[in-house]
Structure formats: structure tokens, C-alpha cells
Amino acid sequence: MEKNQLMRMEDLLDNPTPRIPICLCLDTSSSMLRIVGGETVNTGRTVFQDGKEWNIVEGGITALNELQDGVNHFYEAIADDEVARYGAEICVVTFDSSAKTLVDYSTIDIQPDPPKLKADGTTSMGEGVNLALDLLEERKNEYREAGVDYYQPWLVLMTDGEPNGAESELRRAINRTNELINNRKLTIFPIGIGPEADMDVLSKFSPKRAPLRLKGMNFKEFFEWLSQSVSTVSDSMPGETIKLDVDGIKSWGEI
């Protein structure tokens, strides 16, 4: 058993606080390297990646930079919350040409540092969601074995494009997600980044709530809202119905 996995199991025994499993399933395809702010210098070179031709520039702030800042802010906010830091378990999955586990489900005390995001390749969205759901099922089994209660899991799905991985994986991911949501075993937050995010595909993952498009690059505002929502859940009892701060969504999202 890996050292980190052993620590996660021991944490369930030492800290029986009900858990809030939260998976950030993030698009890290090469399109996330597009410049969204700051000064740039055009090199005159181009590259074909993620199905498009891109101009190569130097300098500037990328969409990935903004996403990284938002994830960092989320970790800081959870760490500063005396209740959420012991109950929130964060998992980070990224998808580009393949799906990767950057952080498996663990509390801030076990994994205090946010992962470093890197962008490259295409958009294997179905593979990313399936990996996220596989990790969730494994962690839920560990909760049951340790006798630790848990809240309805959250899946945050963020993308700036359209999926171009295996069609079979995408269909399987959509079906699995819908089944969990309809059985009240999962809450999903599908978020489109930028004007080219495929909102139609995101809506297929979310039968009960329309996907939202991020306003500009308001990642920090989104993750601030998410951390506050986690804090609200942490103060409730597992199974209790929680109303999300709908007004707060207006600061970062739009339909």
C-alpha cells in the first residue's frame, strides 16, 4: 500500500468526522495555454494543437495560470476553515490527451499543497470523468469499511472546449453521471470556460441543473463560492438538504 494511501486510511480511523468528497475534474488540454491577459510579444511562429492552429507568443497570462490561482485559493480557503479542513476531502483529476490523478481524495492535513497544473494535448473529457467516478467509488468503499459517514459527493467539471477522446468513454461517463445524480448520489457543477466550451455536452452530464459559463476568467470567484458552500455543508448533518447560494453564483457564472 502506498504511503499516501495508508495515511488516508489512518486518517479515517483517527478523524471520524463525516467527509465531503469533492473532485475537481479539470480540462488541461493545450487550449488552456491561450493568453487571456497581460502583455505579449508575437514570435511569428504557429503550432497545431488540440485541433487548432495557434500563434506562439511570449509573455502574458494564460487561462491555465488563472485556473491554477483559483485552485490555490480553494485550498487556502478550506485550510482556513476550522470545520471544513477536517471534513472536506479534495481529489484533483485532469484530462488532456489522457486522464490523470493529481491528488486522490484526502483532507488538507494529508495533502496541504495544491497540485501544479500542466497543459498539453487534446480533450479526453469522458476518460477524465470516468477516472473521477472510479476514484469516488473506491473512496466511498473506504468510508464504509472505516465506518465514517459522508455527504453527497460533489464533482466539479470544467472545460474550455469540446471532447475529442473516445466516444464510448464519453457515453459511459455521461450515463454513469446521470445514474448517480438521478439516484441522489452525486452533485455536479459543470462549468464552461470561455466562448468555445461545449455547453451542450456539459448539459448531458447534468440532468437536473443547467451548466454555467464562467464570466471571463473569474476562477477565484468560483472557487471562493465553492469553498463557502463546502463550509455550509460542513456545518450540517449528512443527508440534510442544503440550499446553495444562488445569488453568489452571479459573481462568477452565467447561463
Automatic annotation (TrEMBL):
The VWFA domain extends over 21-233
Record Pfam families: VWA
The record ties this protein, via InterPro entries, to: Tellurite-R_TerY, VWF_A, vWFA_dom_sf
Q: Superkingdom of this entry's organism?
A: Bacteria
Gene3D superfamilies, per the entry: von Willebrand factor, type A domain
Protein name per UniProt? Uncharacterized protein YegL
Naturally occurring in which organism (per UniProt): Gracilibacillus halotolerans
Show the taxonomic lineage: Bacteria, Bacillati, Bacillota, Bacilli, Bacillales
